[in-house]
Amino acid sequence: MKRKTKLLALLIISTVVISCSNNQKEEEDMNTNEKSLSVFPLGDPGSSDWFTGEVHVQGLVNPDQIEGLYSVGQVTFEPGSKTNWHTHPAGQVLLVTEGRGWYQERGKPAQELIKGSVVAIPKDIEHWHGASKETKLVHIAISNVKDNSAVTWLAPVNDEEYDSVDK
Amino acid sequence: MKRKTKLLALLIISTVVISCSNNQKEEEDMNTNEKSLSVFPLGDPGSSDWFTGEVHVQGLVNPDQIEGLYSVGQVTFEPGSKTNWHTHPAGQVLLVTEGRGWYQERGKPAQELIKGSVVAIPKDIEHWHGASKETKLVHIAISNVKDNSAVTWLAPVNDEEYDSVDK
Q: Where is the Cupin type-2 domain (chains A, B) (predicted)?
């Protein structure tokens, strides 16, 4: 009888522990899902002419929808990916919605980007932005248009430049 | 001895169950927190001259940071709250980041807004936007500036108008 009771106790404990850990697994799956869902769809792969690493761009507003003033898009940088150096003839605004990364103007210290960061990029300033090595970065970009152009692309950010920012 | 074993088993089961439900409580608290945190801070109460109900506005970019082109802000509408009717002299873009609500141009059917909705509002079109009755709405607004103005405010949306949209 003593042995039967022990066995019964073990069975009950095992059931409770398995049920508990199953619930936690479901919670974790839901959390991962929730966290990986950005506000907008992922969009299309960014061109390797303009980006290093895995980047996706989702167009949200075309200039012809809004008096030719700007385009709006969501850019998703996987860990370690980034834009080339570039300039905007009429400036750009970045609104960071997820993750962690960097914004750097040529010759200046980099600025850390996290969820909620806002950057108003002046016109004609050479700069790059992208994810940190360990974490992806998602931002909305409002790219102002001048003479039918919103960006002038330059050289890729090399490993030495990136490593000096994300040490 | 049989009684001691039963007591021991009960004690172990209770400990496991309590520990399990505590973990779940913590997970739930974290989830609730995660879901209620918008991308940007809530900001300041919106003026009752321009909104009906509880609305908060967080300024993100001023026109003087971006060549005078536009302002950018986050607007949070609690359930049932909305803008007055209004027009924009150079248009506006809405990017919905959370919740559910409505956009309506004068004389047209309302358009449902959910997370991920994008609206490019033409210049000089009378319209309103706001939350549904049951769910809050959070959107980013890019408000284009013309002659130092981004909006002309008109009459509040009356209950009949709102009820005919959110039935």
A: 75-138
